[in-house]
Amino acid sequence: MKRSFKTHVFIRLFLIAIGIIVANRYLAQHFLTQQQREQVHQEMGRALRSCSDQFDHRDQFLSCFKALDKGDVMNNVSDFYVLCQKPLRCPNEGANDFWSGKKNAMQEQIDFSSGTLGDGETWLAVRFSEKPNGPEVWIKQSDADKMVKQMWDLRDRNLIRVLPVIVILLLLMTFYMTRVLMRPITSIETSLAELNASNLYKSTTLQAPFREFEKLVSVVDDLRIRLNESFTKARRFASDASHELRTPLTILRGNAEQLIHEMPVGSDAQIRMRSVSDEVERLIEITEKLLLLSRADANSLVQNLSDVNLSELLVRLINDAHIFQSGLKITSDIERDVIWCCDQTLVRQLIQNLYVNAMNYNQPQGWIHITLSQSQGKFTLTFENPTTEVPADLSERAFERFYRGDASHARQVDGLGLGLSICLEIAKLHQGTLSLSTTDKQTVVTVLTAPLRRTT
């Protein structure tokens, strides 16, 4: 079983969306941590510049700094400040190269530096540029990162609570994007579904919804044109061949009949000539039916519409059947006065073919049940008959041309395999449908449904 492209796209988009969210989470944490360190570093320089006169008293220094921006969350980081002044002990004691990579803020005359000391700790430090032995403010990088870490920990805890909402939103977004991606394909599919062998000559309404689909639409339209040319040639050949065969076959039939009358009655030669005549008749019937089918394929069947009392037509058929088919029991349930606006000649052929099909594919001493009813501007005509050895593919292949089932291939049943194909074309011509199905009771049911009045 092949995978669903829509499901494939849906899963891929969903996984990509999750991947983007996870990547965004870690990238945001990384960059936010870097930005946080830089801001802490800047705030240390600001504290040193603004509150240096209170540097000797740590509590006053911190209070002075926190008073600069009351309520600022960055003020809490100042609790981790380490204040020192040469020759007092500073974290970089013995490491004279710590300030070698300093960065100077000219407008503030403050040196900024960071680095890892011998204890493995990374520190951030600031001092006055003009007072290398003056007051310095230090902080461990790990202490500066604590606030960011606490913020992300809090976010991760809340993420568990909102995770169902996030998943639902992701599913909705993925579903929407899948619909958007599938919409152009569905549009092309809908336009192509309208094409069939009888309307390939028409210019399709297929339009490229986006520029990327223009090449595909062009290829499909070229294929439609080539298919139409191939179908036209095939129809013309079948029509021309059938038409050209009619004259020589008619001559053969006339000569065969003449020879039959000239030969001794009951002789072997007369019997063989009668067999030849029967085969010629069979060929003539095939050519006539092929000609009708080729005209139907080319939409060139001419209809002579008139109101036909379908009920009376079926009753006459059943009465005639009772006279000539005494071996079959024919029953009916026919609604009175079902008037169908149709081509009477074609419809007679349709009903006759359905009846002959039910008669030929029947059981010895079997039966045929015919039902006719009308409702809401439509009628339904049903032929049901019992049969034996129903082919497994009968329902799917019954309307294929020259298909006659397994038994009929051995000529056990007379026929050409074109009757139901002709019935289907006549039904389509009258905007109807024709179906054939088998039941568990070994019966074959053929159903014709069509509107009583042709719709535009």
Overview of this structure, please?
With 456 residues, the chain is α+β, with helices and mostly antiparallel strands. It has three domains: 5-150; 211-297, Orthogonal Bundle (Helix Hairpins); 305-451, Histidine kinase-like ATPase, C-terminal domain (Heat Shock Protein 90), CATH 3.30.565. It is 53% helix and 17% strand. The chain has a five-stranded antiparallel sheet. A hairpin with a 5-residue loop joins strand 3 (110-116) and strand 4 (122-128). The longest helix has 49 residues, at 214-262.
Task: Please outline what is shown here.
With about 450 residues, the chain is α+β, with helices and mostly antiparallel strands. The chain has helices at about 5-50, 60-70, 140-145, 145-195, 215-260, 270-295, 310-325, 345-360, 395, 405-410, 420-430; strands at about 80-85, 105, 110-115, 120-130, 135-140, 305-310, 330-335, 340-345, 365-375, 380-385, 435-440, 445-450.
Number of helices: 11
Helix content: 40-55%
Indicate the mean pLDDT: 81
Could you say which structural class the secondary elements and strand pairing correspond to?
Answer: alpha+beta
Q: For this structure, what is the CATH homologous superfamily of the largest domain?
A: Histidine kinase-like ATPase, C-terminal domain
* Strands, total number: 12
CATH class of the largest domain: Alpha Beta
- The name of the CATH architecture of the largest domain is 2-Layer Sandwich
What's the end-to-end separation, in Å?
A: 42 Å
**Rg (C-alpha, Å):** 46 Å
What is the chain-wise order of helices and strands? HHEEEEEHHHHEHEEHEEHHHEE
Report the sheet-strand fraction: 15-25%
**Biggest sheet, open or closed, and with what strands and sense?**
5 strands, antiparallel
Provide the spatial order of strands within the biggest beta sheet: 1-5-4-3-2
Poorly predicted runs: 407-411
CATH topology of the largest domain: Heat Shock Protein 90
Tally of domains: 3
Q: What is the overall shape?
A: rod-shaped
